[in-house]
Amino acid sequence: MIATAWRVVGVGFSLLVILAAALLYGVDPQQTSLAGTFIGNEVFISFDLRTDDLTVLMLAIVGVISACVQVYSIGYLEKRVASYTALVTLFTAAMVTVVVSDSLFLLLIGWEVMGACSYLLIGHYWERHDARAGAMKAFLMTRLGDVGFLFGIFVLGVGAGTFRISELRPEEISPGALTAGTLLLLVGVIGKSAQVPLHTWLPDAMPGPSPVSALIHAATMVAAGVFLIARLFGVFAAADATLTVLAVVASVTMLFAALCAMAAVEVKRVLAWSTVSQLAIMFAGLSLGTADGRHAALFHLLTHAAFKGLLFLCAGVLLHQVGSAAFVVLRRYTRRGALRKAMPVTFVTMTIGLAALAGVPGFAGFFSKDSVVEAAWHHARDGSLVGWIVLVSVCVTAGLTAFYCVRMWLWVFFRTPALAGALGAFEADDPMADLEDPDTSKLRDAPWIMLAPLVLLAVAAVVLGYTDGVHVNWAIALLTTVLALLGALPAYSLWQRGADPRPVVLEREFGVDALYHRLFVVPVQWFAKLVVGGDRDVVGAYVRAAGRAGVLASAGFRKLQTGNVQTYLTAAVVGVVALAILAGVIGS
Fold it and tell me: Which domain holds residue 135?
């Protein structure tokens, strides 16, 4: 009964967010001031709200994805339903707080609540070690970035004399404070949106429930960084050094993550690395510092929310119906293409999601990705180095994205031509490798309560590309289509030959996790042991010695209490004689 009540509340709140977006659509931008407080005698912090086109866009994204996740979770989740639904609802409310804030400090509150909820949701299956480890890693890395975020708020707010976002004027902030403040904010954005070098937490967050991945890691929390820069775009656009840093970080991240996705062997991990890469494309558009770049980034944010949310929910269906989202287990079904035949709705919707992600012409991802390429081309044509960096990086990433999309689609849904190459090595370690093929007659598509959100998001993954008007630059469209084909054909060729090569450097994800372990985890553990030893053997030794001295003193005094009157009288006489002798010595 409690779980059902929470589900009703969760779905109702998500629908309320959608209703708010619908009511605010077309309303003139406005700010609403709420209660505030003074810090010292000069700085006043108010908690203000703001409504504009960006607010409506983000509310629509958050509301729709949250509603789909809440409905989908009714059929997906059976364990700890009440706490899960409460946390998802609180997380959605925190994201809404970020979206409607016109105060840097109110935005910070929503930003931090999201982080806390993500930690708890990633660790929902807390009895699993990988879920606990992933939750802790996400918490620590995002909190590390949030330290810079907090200082950035102070630098910009004090520099501008206000913490109200709509009143931040770049021309009123000194260049040094503007650059320092935006760079510090960028540190928090990098942590929250899993960009290099604070990127490794997102793939390790996949042990959480698949609906959580769809909500947090595809459309809301990780997208909050993109929203923040778009909200403060005028401030960031005035800081050239910050935009250059953002462009370099985004370019490195999109290529790095795409290469890691090419070698990943689990469906959700492929999608996680893809999320990191696609977010970097959005940041690349913002780093151009132009209105076209900002518009393209937000357009890609919109389409990405639809097709990546769809893909994570499809992965959840595979996990729910098959039992694992890993290629090494799914191959038991893909020998005969069993998943494609037994789960037609999941197959069709996931195909649409992968097509949109790969940028197949006609799907939403094609239009939004091309808009970023076009904005970069216009900027590069004006002689901008940042424009050229973004243009080349996005184009190369488009080819890599098509490769891993086709690779995953073929390996999951189609009959494996040959079990050879690197995949065979993984099967050798599979405890079920020697089992007979499973009984596919019992394999079914998910319940309708889980399939309905898939169908809705699949439709969105197609039609959202046309919401911005059918604007196609045919030269750029031809270029990106050719790049997608160049990425897809090698993936098809390798699959047809039964090969799935994963260079060691890619399979180990460039060894970044191992490097971080040596550089940070091992020294921290060593210092922790040093502190524990110092506390135990130095500080604790003095405490124990003081206690021991008290015990010994009390034991000595206890021995004097013999209960013998003669002993007490003798001691008294000796004391009197001693005092008399001492008085005589002093008097002389």
Answer: 1-238
Give the pTM: 0.89
Report yes or no on 388 lying in a domain. Answer: yes
β-bridge mates for residue 103, sequence order: 164
Residue 513 in domain = no
Task: Give the per-residue pLDDT at 431.
Answer: 43
Angle at which helices 53-76 and 81-100 cross, to 10°:
170
Claim to verify: residue 28 and residue 118 sit in the same structural domain: yes
Is 432 a member of any domain?
Answer: yes
Task: Name which residue leads in pLDDT, 108 or 580.
Answer: 108
Domain limit, last residue, from 186, 206, 238: 238
By C-alpha distance, which of 285, 84, 119 is closest to 204?
119
Contacts with 572 (C-beta within 8 Å, 6 or more apart), sequence order: none
Per the structure, the count of domains in the chain is: 3
Three-state DSSP class for residue 468:
coil
Cα–Cα distance for residue pair 350/454, rounded to 1 Å: 8
352-401 confidence digits (pLDDT tens): 999 999 999 999 999 999 999 999 999 999 888 999 999 999 999 999 99
The DSSP string of 410-425 is: HHHHS--S---HHHHH
Q: Supply the DSSP symbol for 517.
A: I
User: Same domain for 212 and 360?
Assistant: no
- Backbone torsion region of residue 9, taken as left when φ is above 0, otherwise alpha when ψ lies between -120 and 50, otherwise beta: alpha
Provide mean pLDDT across the span 132-148: 92
Does 314 reside within a domain? yes
Do 172 and 313 share a domain, yes or no? no
Cis bond before residue 361 (omega within 30° of 0): no
